[in-house]
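Worked example 2:
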Amino acid sequence: MNAQSYRLAFWRVAAEEINYRRFFDVNDLAAIRVELPEVFDAAHKLLFELVASGALNGLRIDHPDGLYRPLEYFEKLQLHCAKALRIPLPKDGRAIYLIVEKILGGDEQLPKNWPVHGTTGYDFANQVAGVLVDHNAEGAISKIFKRFIGHSLHFGHLVYAKKRLVMRISLANEVNVLGNMVDRLSEQYRWFRDYTLEALARAVRETIACFPVYRTYLEPGKPVSQEDRSVIERAVAAAKRRNPAIEESVFNFLRDLLLFRFPENLDEEQRAAHAQFVLKFQQFTGPIMAKGLEDTAFYIYNRLAALNEVGGDPHFFGLRVEGFHQHNLRRQRDWPSSLLATSTHDTKRSEDVRARMLAISEIPQLWGRSLQKWRTANRRFKKEIDEAEAPDAGEEYLLYQTLLGTWPVDVDGVAAPSVSKEFVSRIQGYMAKALKEAKLNTSWIQPNENWDNAMVEFVARILEAGPRNKFLPAFLPVAQEIARLGAINSLAQITIKFTAPGVPDVYQGTELWDDSLVDPDNRRAVDYGRRREMLRQIENVPPRDLMRC
């Protein structure tokens, strides 16, 4: 083994010591340097052959924020597609239909200089969910959430804390690399060479923790856009406010590096090192946002969990109709061929589950009263572990929303009086993942088997039908009402999707009602035979009966 060009190491070492870039924190998904010409050619050889043969008419690029230079990559991809199609590259640079899985935060817009046709549609999914929320219920839902979990929870503070956590336990090595890079850069300036490695590394960590979006797109040798400048200045300013004990000039130095502000007397080698740091920094902020926000904070801040979707901001409770129309007008003007997604392989729950859970905002009083009844009925099934109740209040709150979103109903909308073993197993699997992602009482890295088992048993006991079960009789009427309201939301959602500007995207299985949760639940086998048979029969089915599908 010692003669090999590698050394096998315990998998937990990777968080702090690893010498290759990964997909997020997945050790066995090594990232490739697609920015290198030879790697690009090898990775895309088959793809361009398929484009040339006519087998492919469009491309979807996942995780574009992981690219070293996204704009350069998209331009190169379109150029090679034009060559494969034997056509001149169009003036707009778009030789083939190309969409990107870009997660937009808040009012962030897709860069207009990208030669693409739009996003994969997470932005639309959040917009249509927002317009289906009764924003007038925000105060009531917030009070119910706070009362149930027993404390207030500030979403912004939570995201900041969880991004710092991820940089400490999962991606510490990547932060160390950036810290070492900026430390070497500081040595080039006599005014900054006394900044210590630890001070610079802390500035990097804190700035990333305060980043308001997934990443910026600065390019060496090109002007800094106003959007990117604003993001960096906001992040650095927020980091300063949160860290008054850190010398302000350290943050100023980092800010100037990220904005390509350097003396004219730097030589080419120094400028190249400077540019490399900025490009590597930009590659890193996205994974931290994804792991800290989507894969941690979203499993803790469950005020209305339907809003906890990829690209969403659950702090904002709904979207007014006027704002929704503005998004549609902007898409029609700028990205008319962008996808309109409501379910994907990466959504936290299916469009129909989300539609049901959004309906909670329409019945806040019933929701609040019911929660207290359910908690009382199920308290006897909790376990005491390390002087704490398992599951905890936040986990229980998420469980009840999940059950409302997935509870089976018959064709007449009547809630099933009991559920199958398969359903119970699915809910147990979902909650097991939710608990580990939250990283509060258990985690993937350090599982707490007692806590995990307590949740498994809790789900089994509360869903066990029988005369002693006091939960189900109180739960079923609410589940039935939520199913009714959710069906209306689902129909409204799909109507909007097929009429709004853009290209509707239908995820596998969502042709019918779909109760899927996050992966792997949403990647179960789809009964395509049933769907083919229904398509054959549909011409002879009266419209009123289509609702029963």
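Strands lie at 22-23, 26-30, 58-61, 97-100, 118-119, 339-340, 383-385, 388-390, 503-504. The radius of gyration is 25 Å.
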